[in-house]
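Quick illustration for those who missed Monday's session on complexes.
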Amino acid sequence: MTMTTPSPTGRWRDAARAAGLLRADGTVAATIFAEMTALATRTGAINLGQGFPDVDGPHAIRQAAIRAIEAGHNQYPPGPGIRALRQAIADHQHRRYGLDVDPDTEVLVSTGATEALAATILALADPGDEVVTLEPFYDSYAACIALAGATHVTVPLLPSPDGFRLDVEALRTAVGPRTRLIVVNSPHNPTGTVLTPTELAEIAAAARASGAVVVTDEVYEHLTFDGARHVPIATLPGMAERTLTISSAGKTFSFTGWKVGWLHGPAELVTAVRTVKQFLTYSSGAPFQPAIAEALGDDVGPRALADSLATRRDLLCEGLVAAGFDVVVPQGTYFVVADGTPLGFDDGAELCRRLPDLAGVVGVPVSAFCRTPAPGASPDAPSDLAAHLVAGVRFTFVKREDVLRDAVGRLASLRRA
Ligand code: PMP
Ligand code: GLN
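Prediction with glutamine bound:
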């Protein structure tokens, strides 16, 4: 793999290390998603690695963006986002979850959820502060915590007959007086877990007791299956005043490249985040903002997408089981975690490197979503990872059914190998 950037220094170096991308020679690798997409392109393998749909979102929403371009929405929009989108976000939160949100003071539009997360962590976490996340965790969390100079503390999700579940004892130990932020992600990437009201109540209790702010990444809020219900943690008692809720149009409407995200929460926290955001991007996505404002009024489209994803999840999960993997069936998101141990692969990273040759398919190792080993240790030997994470591979099912059928057919060769 030759994708490198020059050696970074200071906190950028810490961020690269935290994201598991710092090599022994000081250079930095591309993110695991970029690396695996490049691997798929190079080998012609089916890309079930990076999570993006292979069918674009609804025609009507695309037309709305085209109309906005033609109508001249092509210069900087206001930094906090256009009024119509902030209003649509507030309406959506009220209609779907009963949350009361002031579109003028409590909403901020961002360049995807990624920027909302980065600006939030940079605005609120300082050196000496602890930021708690679940583990496995989305890769940008660790990098942003390191950029802020804060300390990353994790709480595992453990596999059980009920799927990956929150380790409540570990949560109680992890959250304390130094905890500034608790970053929640449900529905959860990569496990597909939808946190239960009981798990959310435990997190809420820990936040209230410690005085921590909760940052909740809900980008898969509408992509849940089998009747699993997404409950925003901001709806729990006493939580709206200490929660920043982050989401994005990318997953809900199948426009991951438009990068329209947002956050909402108490005005003083949103103001702090806006202060950072104005120096990151200031604003973005002028013609996409009115299109997403229109899209957010539609509750039927996202439900249809979730139903179709549930069918595709079943297709992929059944194929993975038939190929010999152990699978934890996800209740939401684009992703399923499969364990290659029954096939003789106890290292998911190694399996992912070999998978294009073995089966013509690309996945992402779950270890890429885990804490990296101590500085100096080889990034290829994550010694402190639980075995269930070391062996895990994340596959996405947000692909056309014919693509998934092809992938499942190819994966079947693993059992024969
Ligand atoms: N959080 C999670 C859990 C994600 O999976 C992703 C990307 N899929 C993001 C945040 C980033 O979202 P966006 O593309 O809107 O920046
Ligand atoms: N969120 C997507 C995933 O988890 C990828 C986003 C990215 O490439 N940074 O696959």
